[in-house]
Amino acid sequence: MKSEKIIKTPAGQQKVNEEKDMTMSERIFSVRIETRSQKLRKDLEELIAFVGGMQIKDMSDPGGYDLFIVDIGEEHGKDLQFVGNILSAGVAGEVFLTSPKTNPEILIEALRIGAKEFFPQPLNGEEVKDALIKFKVRAQKDRTKVIAVPAKRGKIIDVLGSKGGVGTTTVAVNLATSLAGMEGVQSVALMDMNLLFGDIPLFLGIEPVFDWMEVTRNISRLDATYLMSTLYKHHSGIYVLPSPSKLMDEYKITPQVIESLLKLMHTLFDYVVIDSGQSFDDVSKVIMRMSDKVLVVTLLSLPCLINVKRLQNTFRGLGYPNDANVEIIVNRFHKNSTVSMAEAEKNLDKKFLWTIPNDYQTTMSAINQGKPLIALKTESQISKNFLDFASALSGKTQAKRNGFSWFKYLKDKS
Ligand SMILES: Nc1ncnc2c1ncn2[C@@H]1O[C@H](COP(=O)(O)OP(=O)(O)O)[C@@H](O)[C@H]1O
Ligand SMILES: [Mg+2]
C-alpha cells in the first residue's frame, strides 16, 4: 500500500495497482539504454530501478529487448534509421527516444518510425517514471510479444558464380528482392562477399554508410542490435551488408567472423542471400558449409560448365555442401545455346533447378537505374521469372498489398 504515495494523481494510482498485479507474475522486462552520455545513462538507470520489474541488459546479450531507450545525438538521421531498423527487425518491443534537441522534424520522424515516447533533455524524472510504468502495463498485456530471444531459423542462400560475369550479382540481388516480395516473408538480408569489387550498392543505387569492415572491426560486440544498426535498409525491404571498397589487413574477415555473423543473421532474417562471386577461400567454405542452399550460377557454355563440374568435384572432396543442397541455375538462357540443356544436365548428372532468360537490355537498364528488376517501370519476362524463382525456392506465393500487385507497390515506392 505504501508504494501508492509515489504517484499522486488518481490515474497514477490506478497504474500503481496494475503494476502490483504484474509483480505477481514476476515477468522482468529487459531494457537497453543506448547513449554516449554517462550522466544520462545513470539518470535512466536510477529511474528504471525506481520503477522496478525491469532489468538492464547490455550488448553481450545476443537476444532482443523489451524496451530500447535511444539517445538521439548530433547525427539524428543515422540514429533514427537505426531505431527504424531495430523496430522492424523485431529486436526491440518498444522504443523510447530522448534528445537534447526537440525540433519538430525529429519529433515527427520519431513518431513515424514508431517510437512510443519522446523525452526532451534534461529529463523530467516524473515524466520518465510515468512512461516506464505505462510501458510495463502494455508489455504485460501483450504477452505474445515477448522479445527475449528471436527464435527465427532463416535460410542461408549462397550464390556462387561458375565464372566471372555469369550474373552472380544479378541473381543474388534479384533473388533477394523477389524473396522480400513473397507472402509471409518478413525479412531478407543481402550480403556481398566480393571484397573490394562488390557491386551490390551499384545494383541497388545506394550509398551505404557501413560495410563489412565495420562488422569485423567490432566483432567482439556483435549482437542483433549492433548488426541491425550497420545494415542498410533498401526500400524494397531488404537489409544490405556491402563489401568494403578498400582493404585493410587489420580487419580481415576470418572464418570465425563469418561463422558468428551467419549464426546471428539466421536468427534475425527469414532469408540471408549471399553474393559470393567466384571466391573459394576459407571464408567462402564456411559460408558453403553453413548454407541451406548453394546456388551455382552458370551459362550454357563449355568453359562455364567445365567449372561447374570442377565445383561439383571439389564439393565432393570437401564433403560439403551436400549434393542435395547444391542447385545449378542457368543464366542468360536462350534456345540456341551451343550446349543444350539436356546435354549439360546429362554431363553434370544433375537436373538444373532454374533457368533465367537472356535479356541484356533489361538487366543493364536495371543496373543503370540502380534498381532491382521487380522495381522497373515495365514488367518484363525476366522480372516475373525472378518472382517465380523466389516462389519456387521459398514455397511461398507472391504477396499482394492492398489489392495491388507487388510490382505496383515497389514501383510506387521507387
Ligand atoms: N539474364 C541475363 N540476361 C542478359 N544479361 C545478363 C543477365 N544476367 C546478367 N546479365 C549481364 O551480365 C553482366 C554481368 O552481370 P553480373 O551480375 O555483374 O555478373 P557477375 O556478378 O557474375 O560478375 C551484366 O552486364 C548484366 O547485365
Ligand atoms: Mg558480381
Task: Describe the fold and architecture.
- The chain is α/β, with parallel strands linked by helices and 414 residues long.
- The protein folds into two domains: 2-145, Response regulator (Rossmann fold); 155-413, 3-Layer(aba) Sandwich (Rossmann fold), CATH 3.40.50.
- Helix content is 43%, strand content 18%.
- The protein is built from 16 helices and 15 strands.
- The chain has helices spanning 10-25, 38-51, 76-88, 104-112, 125-141, 168-179, 200-204, 212-217, 224-230, 255-268, 282-290, 302-318, 341-348, 360-369, 381-394, 406-413; strands spanning 29-34, 54-56, 65-71, 92-99, 117-120, 155-161, 188-192, 232-233, 239-241, 271-277, 293-298, 326-333, 354-357, 400-401, 404-405.
- The strands form three sheets. Strands 8-9-7-10-6-11-12-13 form an eight-stranded mixed beta sheet, with helices on both faces.
- The radius of gyration is 25 Å and the shape is elongated.
- The model is unreliable at 1-24, 146-150 and 402-409 (pLDDT under 50).
- Bound molecules: adenosine-5'-diphosphate (ADP) and magnesium ion (MG).
- Residues 161, 164-170, 199, 331-332, 356, 358-360, 363-364, 367, 382 line the site of adenosine-5'-diphosphate.
User: How does the helix and strand content classify structurally?
Assistant: alpha/beta
Low-confidence stretches: 1-24, 146-150, 402-409
Overall body shape: elongated
Bound molecules: adenosine-5'-diphosphate, magnesium ion
